[in-house]
Specification:
Layout lengths: L7 E5 L6 H12 L2 E3 L9 H6 L1 H25 L7 E3 L6 H8 L2 H14 L8 E6 L2 H11 L9 H17 L5 E5 L9 H12 L5 E4 L4
Parallel strand pairs: 1-3, 1-4, 2-3, 4-5, 5-6
Helix pairs in contact: 3-4, 3-5, 6-7
Length: 213
Amino acid sequence: MIPSKYRYIVVEGPIGVGKTSLAQRLAERLAAEALLEEPDANPFLPGFYRDMRRHALSTQLFFLFQRVNQVVELKQRDLFGRLTVSDFLFEKDPLFARLTLDDPEFQLYTQIYSHLKVQAPQPDLVIYLQAPVDMLLERIQRRGLKMEKNISEDYLRRLAESYTQFFYQFDAAPLLIVNSVNLNFVDRPNDFELLIEHIGHLRGPREFLNKAA
């Protein structure tokens, strides 16, 4: 059972790692409000996956404005009422910007981010999902979204490394780092229950969950 002190839980990780599926599963289990990214609402995203260099800035700014609106909505909710589970951490937005924008664009992005940035509520728990790049690529190909078919292994590798660096320094909330190689939270109920049990026994500010093959 998840302790009642966790009123705002964030699931994070690179593309293809399963963060949205897990966030939805947790929200359903906990009768929580799900606050999810909306990539399908970004009209620039298909073009970005076809030509990252050309569409990076418009894609990134759309996501930034979208996430700001979601964070404002989150701040307006009573976090001490209904539990909220999200599949994104607002503070990670610059991670993608630094990865995809050239220096002048990143400077522009940074100025806009600084002006728009709101004080997002800090999560009570962040679950960071990890997986090897080849597994991320396989999962992306298996779900078969047309706009994702051109995602390269190099981009995924750089993205995964950026996430690793980001969470290596992250100390704003308790962090559970999950190696998802041998875990399937959607199709294997025992794996999901293992996660629930592990969350219920968290004690330190940074813990790990691994499962042997």
